[in-house]
Specification:
By secondary structure, this protein is mostly beta strands. It is built from one helix and eight strands; from the N terminus they run H-E-E-E-E-E-E-E-E. The strands form two sheets. Strands 1-8-7-6 form a four-stranded antiparallel sheet, with no helix packed on it. It has a four-stranded antiparallel sheet with strand order 2-3-4-5, with helices on one face. The protein is globular, with a radius of gyration of 15 Å. The chain starts with a helix and ends in an 8-residue tail after the last strand.
Length: 134
Amino acid sequence: MTTAGKRIFALALAAALSLSAGVALRAEPHGRVTAPVTLKPLAAASFEVGRKHVLSYFVGADGACRLTVIVFDAASPVETSPATATTRFIVPISSGKSANLDTAVARTLHFACAPDATAMTVTASERVPSGAAY
């Protein structure tokens, strides 16, 4: 499958999951998510992180959350093809545990699996406080 085909597939999957689950999350690239967002199984969460989009959903089974994260380039009116390939991660997270996805724009997406693996909590935070010296 070509890179453009993979991107179209990822977008179609995101649309289908969002419509079937009725839940979508949109975080601005440099804004803060002020409250945690709770996801149910197969309910997609979509984040804009800098020049990338992050689409995530999970399935709960056997006392764990099986998180799927798809990262792809944001649409651009200037560039006709994405600069990088679409990437998919599948991360099993034990119930009551969490995993972090650090981005290139100093943001961290935190995915926490509920103790009964029937929900996930997603939060976003800045890795470097604004005004901090390097």
